[in-house]
Amino acid sequence: MFENLIGLVAIIALFVIVSRQQSRIGLIERELGALRGLVSLGANTALPQAKPAAQAADGGKPADALLAAAADAASTPASELAAAQAAVVEDETTAEAVPGPWTVTAPTESRPVEPAAPAKAARQSDVETALGTRWAVWVGGIALALGGLFLIRYTIEAGIFGPGVRLTMAAIFGLVLVAASEFIRRTGFKVPVQGIADAYIPAILTAAGAFILFGTVYAAYAVYGFIGPAFAFVLLGAIGIATIVAALVHGQALAGIGLLGAIVTPMLIASQAPNPWALFGYLAIVLAATGVIARMRDWALLMAAAFVGVGIWTLLYMTDSPGANLSVILFIKAVTLVILAFVWLGRRVEPEQAGGFDWPSVAPGVFVGLCVLALFVDPAFALAGDALPGAILLAAMVTVALYRTRAVPLLYAAGLVAVMVYLGIIPPTAVASDFPGGSLIVNGVAVVTADTLTFRIGIVLGLFFILAGFWAARGSAASAPVRAASWAAWGVIVPVVILFSLWFTFGNLDRDFGYAFGAILLVVAFAAGGEWIAGREAPPRKGGAAVSFALGGAAVSALLMLHMAFGSGMTTIMIGASAVVPALATRWRSYPVLGWISVGAAIAVLCRVAFDPTVVGAEFLSTTPVFNWLLPGYGVPALAFGFAAWQLARTTNGRPRLAMEAAAALFALLTVAILVRHAMHGGVITSGAPSLAEQAIYTLIALGAGAILIAIDRRQPSSVLRYGSMAAGVASVLFIVGQHFAMLNPLFTDESTGRIPVFNLLFLAYLLPAVAAGGLALYARDKRPKWYAAMLALVAALLAFAYATLSVRRFFKGEFIGYWSGLGQVETYTYSALWLVMGVVLLTAGVWLKSQVLRIASAVLISVAVLKVFLFDMSELEGVLRALSFIGLGAVLIGIGLFYQRLLTRAARENG
Question: In this prediction, what percent of the chain has a pLDDT beyond 70?
Answer without folding.
Answer: 67
